[in-house]
Amino acid sequence: MAVATEREYGLYINGELTESAAGDVRELSEPATGEPLARVAMAGEADVDRAVEAARAALGGPWGKTPPNERSRLLHALADALVANRKELAELEVRNVGKAISSVKAELAQAVENFRFYGSAIASIAGRANPIGGSILFYSLKEPVGVAGQIVPWNYPLMMTTWKLAPALAAGCTVVLKPDSSTPLSALRMAELAGEVGFPPGAINVVPGPGKTIGAYLVRHPGVDKIAFTGSTETGGEIMRMASDPIKRITLELGGKSPNVVFADADLADAIPSSVWSIYYSAGQSCEARSRILVEQSLYDEFVSSFADAAGKLKLGDPLDPETQVGSLISNDHRDRVHGYVEAGREEGAEVVAGGERPDGKGAFYPPTVLAGVESKMKVAQEEIFGPVVTVSSFADEKDGIRIANDVRYGLMATVWTGDPARGHRLARQIKAGTVGINMPYTAFPGIPFGGYKQSGFGRELGLETLELYLETKSVLVATGAKPLNPFGI
Ligand code: NAD
Q: Within a 10 A sphere around the Cβ of 352, how many other Cβ atoms?
């Protein structure tokens, strides 16, 4: 296949793949097999300095001088390059992250559309003008914020990279992107493709490295004007603190513990398979996974039994097999962490009605797991497990369902299943989440703002709103009166 597993990957700085100054290299292996995958250079502080310098030079130079129509053409060209190289990118992502290729294909399709959306959305970047009183004309200019430091996690490295790059580049910013050190391959390959289609050196720089040192160094770097972060709520808090001196613009896309609320009048032919998908796609390693199912009391037993049956039928295994529905988790350590939550659930009184045991053999596989009889105060109902584990709780009536849905510190996503359209709209208004689906499991589309309420962060991705987060608004005031200005009357 297209992916060269022996390949060495450099850092991508100023339009070139380069070794790290200190010569640091990380050996990557495939989560699904444990086999070696690639050797990747890891950035140190000197490399981040070089990347920021290249980004600043491109901002004041070739990228800053690239007009919007040319930026649009390049974003569309990069989308075309992703399509042309889709097989290689998909395999790279599957082997690096361990997730099923069926999921990666959908993510890749979205990544392509995301570049196209922002390539076209450039046309919406515009100031406004209006005369004020008799002698002042006001107009506003939209200017790029500057150099954007962007930090992405390991769960959707390819898709998250495009969520970050596309709006920043459309707005005219330059980028220093830090992928997770365990999953940098697709971002590095995309940066190479960007260079090939004509993005000037320095517009995009990719510096994989450890978060606590190199990520933090990037956040504090005086040459970086804005930080866009996706990752855990804990790290998001640290980033807020670090970005306060010197003051930087920040946006945070953080964790979730999203409810899937099922009323007794729901159409179960839709609600059951969609609820199964909503937690187990990407093996539950999704910020917006609907990891808490809340079921109206009268439906509870029937729902738990049908859901557990359906979960038990999912195909777990080789992530490169197109029939696989649930691939590997990112690592054995992460699998142990996920299993620790299942054990904690058992100890708190939850009943494991599907999955719940680590399989023998190679790879970080974990079966779709259902914890029933969960109460909202339990640790498994409050903390992000980030694996193929769902909790099921019951609620008495609409008011109780809303109360439990909102009884977490997160607010990223919610899905509601009901045969009563008015109730669906009532819940959409009352659940505190950035996105609410009514009889609709899907979550993120280019053009539709995506982001959090509460401790799931702030700022929005994927929408026109996102462009604003990479732009400054400058007001220009112009005297248009016939008489000379003389404010002191002197
Ligand atoms: P994480 O916070 O540990 O790491 C995320 C990124 O931040 C990585 O690149 C890491 O190297 C870096 N990082 C870690 N510590 C840092 C520091 N002190 N300073 C700067 N950078 C640092 O999160 P994770 O475990 O890799 O990712 C999973 C989390 O991401 C989950 O909580 C998930 O919900 C969240 N997530 C959110 C969204 C969203 O859109 N809201 C999308 C995907 C994932």
A: 18
Tell me, in angstroms, the distance from the centre of ligand 1 to residue 19's CA. 25
Give the pLDDT of residue 457.
98
Active site annotation includes 173: no
DSSP E strand stretches across 345-385: 351-354, 369-372
Cα of 484 from ligand 1 centre, angstroms: 57
Which of these, 198, 189, 232, 238, lies nearest to 218 by C-alpha position?
A: 238
Q: Which of 91, 107, 113, 253 is catalytic?
A: 253
pLDDT 10s digits, 102-141? 999 999 999 999 999 999 999 999 999 998 887 999 999 9
Buried b (16+ CB within 10 A) or exposed e, 187-202: bbbbbbbbbebebbbb
Backbone angles phi, psi at 17, to 5 degrees: -80, 130
235 CA distance to ligand 1 middle (Å): 6
Q: Nearest C-alpha to atom 14 of ligand 1 is from which residue? A: 211
Residues having CB closer than 6 A to ligand 1 are 151-156, 178, 180, 211-212, 215-216, 219, 230-232, 235, 238-239, 253-256, 287, 384, 386, 412, 452, 456-457
| Residue burial 55-72, b: 16+ Cβ < 10 Å; e: rest | bbbbbebebbebeeeebb
Number of other residues whose CB lies within 10 A of the CB of residue 364: 24
Report the candidate in 179, 224, 229, 241 with the shortest Cα–Cα distance to residue 206.
Answer: 179
Element housing 424 (H / E): helix 421-430
CA of 384, closest atom in ligand 1: 32
Longest dimension (CA), the chain: 89
Enclosing H/E stretch for 97: helix 86-97
pLDDT greater than 70 at residue 190 = yes
Q: What are the distances in angstroms from CA 215 to CA 228, 243, 354, 469?
A: 12, 12, 38, 20
Sign of CA dihedral 102, 97, 119, 195: negative
* Residue 408 CA to ligand 1 centre (angstroms): 19
Question: What pLDDT, on the 0 to 100 scale, is given for residue 376?
Answer: 98
Task: Name the one residue in this structure whose structure tokens are 């809303």.
Answer: 402
Q: What pLDDT does residue 232 have?
A: 98
What's the token pair of residue 232? 């855990």
